[in-house]
Design a protein that fits this description.
This is DUF7781 domain-containing protein. Pfam families: DUF7781. InterPro entries: DUF7781 (IPR056683). With 189 residues, this protein is mostly beta strands. It contains one helix and 15 strands, in the order αβββββββββββββββ. It has one domain. The strands form two sheets. Strands 1, 2, 3, 4, 5, 6, 7, 8, 9, 10, 11, 12 and 15 form a 13-stranded mixed beta sheet that branches. A two-stranded antiparallel sheet has the order 13-14. The radius of gyration is 23 Å and the shape is elongated.
């Protein structure tokens, strides 16, 4: 019987553990809140795989039970009405939308199931972290981590090594940075 060694070079630490801190998406969001409604202008810059720019006008109610938001993309001449993310289970959300493309003269609807967990044989976490710098300015970071946990195993009397270690993998990235500027109008006269 052959021992556990099969003359393969172990992967380097750079291949096993990789953290990318260069975001592929940069967003500037300007928001104006007036009497329970938020009007926003989003300037979105995409770095990878190609350089692209999008602008969006967003209108949505501020109430916690809000059920919709309206989006207009002037560059693509698209309008969309999206539902809020509806919890289906503790970790699964459903979002439904209807939209119209003025360039294509087409109307259609979309749906999306999303979760912060996922991946194909690899565990994945996607999350957004928000930091309030001062009233009216927040920074948000969208990050992702794909990992395989380390594993220790061994055997006796089987021809396999007594002790073997799989050091796992981690690939993490900072995908999005958002600067959010909010101006709130109070209802005083």
């Amino acid at each position: 019987m052959e021992s556990g060694s099969n003359n393969e070079e172990p992967a380097s630490w750079d291949e096993l553990y990789n953290v990318n801190l260069v975001p592929s998406e940069l967003f500037l969001k300007f928001r104006k809140e007036i009497e329970g409604i938020r009007l926003g202008l989003n300037l979105e810059f995409y770095n990878a795989p190609t350089n692209e720019f999008q602008a969006k006008l967003v209108l949505k109610p501020l109430a916690p039970e809000r059920m919709w938001k309206f989006i207009y993309e002037p560059i693509h001449h698209d309008v969309r009405l999206l539902s809020k993310k509806i919890p289906v289970t503790k970790f699964l959300n459903l979002q439904i939308g209807i939209g119209h493309s003025f360039l294509l003269h087409a109307t259609g609807w979309k749906w999306k199931l999303s979760t912060c967990f996922g991946g194909d044989g690899v565990s994945r976490i996607q999350n957004k972290t928000s930091i309030g710098l001062f009233p009216g300015m927040d920074l948000r970071f969208g990050w992702r981590a794909e990992y395989v946990l380390p594993e220790i195993h061994g055997a006796v009397g089987t021809g396999e090594p007594l002790f073997n270690l799989n050091s796992g993998r981690l690939h993490a990235s900072l995908d999005r940075v958002e600067a959010v500027f909010t101006h709130t109008t109070t209802g005083t006269c």
